[in-house]
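Q: How would the structure tokens look for this protein?
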Amino acid sequence: MLDALRKGAGTWVAKIFIGLLVLSFAVWGVADVFRGFGQNVAAEVGGTEISLIDFDRAYRRDLSRFSQQLGRQLTTREGAQLGIAQQTLGTLIAEAALNENARTMNLGISDEKLTVQIQQDPSFKSGGSYDPNLLKQILRNNGMSEDDFVTEQRSLAERQQLAQAISGGMVVPTAYLKVLHDYQSETRNVAYVVIEPSHLGEIAEPDADTLMAFFETEKAKFKAPEYRKITLLQLTPDTIARPEDVSDADAQAEYDDNKQQYHDPEKRKVRQLSFTKPEDAKAAADKLAAGMSFDDLMKDLNLTDNDVYLGLMAKGDFLDTAIGDAAFSLDEGATSGIVDGRFSSVILNVLEVQPEKTQPFEAVKDDIKALLAKEQAEREVLDLLGEIEDARAGGATLKEVGERFHLDTTTPDEIDSTGKNQAEAEVELPNAKGLVSGVFDSDVGVENDPLQLGTHGFLWYEVDEVIPSRDRTLDEVKDKVIAAWKEAESEKRLAEKATELAEKAKSGTELAVLAESNGLELKTADGIARNVAAGDISGAAASQAFDGAEGSVFDVEAADKTGRLVIKVTGRNTTEFNEADPTNAALKTQLASQLQDSLLNQYISNIETQAGIQVNQAGIASVLGLGDSN
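A: Here is the predicted structure in token form.
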């Protein structure tokens, strides 16, 4: 229910609501850095101290909770960077402020009452009753002694007395709850017209003076970006593989060792009729025996090829060996009798038989040599990587490296930061992550680390020249400038037309009359929710529909951003408020808690201001592992 309020965060109702969403014990401003503490004090509020041990224990507890949410353990430094340490300290300072006030007011709790409270805590119950061993186990797991725990619980009870006295029992006024309900449940009905560029007619090209004036104003949009010329060197198994070095004997040995890869077993195109009832299978077999063809039998059973065609299959492709044996016992074009399979009885028809065949060595020799050469190249890549890096460290350019190791260098078209050339066409580049960004992070004469290229390859790049960004002349981009001017002119005319119609509608002319006289279609939309897009109406337009009373008129950009809308609010709807509704009841409870927290926060802030806060920054930095804060 609160999601709708978040979407309307810019309205006065939402601002009031958000103002109450102050969590109890948030981070308050910490004044005066005090450096005269004892070594074990983290902060003081008035005369109440927060020890570094307490801060460390509380911080690590909060850090553990956040780590569980994040899915990995945070270090104390990472927690500090995320603000967790500040939150922990803020909570401890707030508690200390209440403890200070409780001390000055001489609040307390008897040992008997405190014992009852601890024993009634569900965390320490086992089987429905208080378990002292469970309490000891929990304290041991949290590194806390029983005396420290009792002291902490006594302070907590005293703080609760203060909190209850300050804001306990505060309830949300029904009128306030109703305002929030009405805000969330309200919808609007609207009538509107859509004005599109097509309604404006054709926009003629601008004259020379108009175009030049527009270009001068918008020149920055047509600026040529910075381009860079680069040299690339690829080291991959494909670039260093030498199939011509593989002997026929080695290729023959590979062929002989893996002959099954070059062997295609006999395959058959098979059709299959399946029967779950033996009597149906027998009836079909009798028709075939009487001279009916397999195709005619399919028609008789209202079956198509899609229903019976199994595909081109080897004998081992059949899951049911009985059916596979039967299919491979038939001649091409033959039809079987009834075959009893594992799951049903079938009748088979063989459309085509493809004999087994083995590709001869000569037919696959070149492929085998290429495969063996690539496998060898994969083993050589890492060795060559080290040699190339040594050459680069010695000052060799990529061109020199390529010549030394018999590798080709390439110089693609100059590229901009999006990988396009000066004709704005995509430049074909190796598929190496970070290549374009790396080029623009580098400079002429800079040696760059190689990039990973595929699974086994590497790519080096050098920046040869930087072509600075510059202003283009009108002649270079005339077509683009004309298109941009037309687009701007269209938007201008759309806005003018929308403003004209909106002013007429505000003056009393019915929207239907305006639609008819301007050749537009009058549309309606009922039940528009705040900030929720609906058809032609964008979320922003829906929000604006709630800014005025019924009958208000406004114009706004259409949801598709190609036209404009003139909208009139024709109705306002709200659901009946029922305080007992479960949703409202839950909201009432939540708002009451937030009001109580807000009042308590103000009270605590006042205590802190009066008592004064002093923080041992050096001690806290030490706990966080940040070193001396000086």
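The chain has 24 helices and 19 strands.

The chain has a mean pLDDT of 87.

Upvote if useful.
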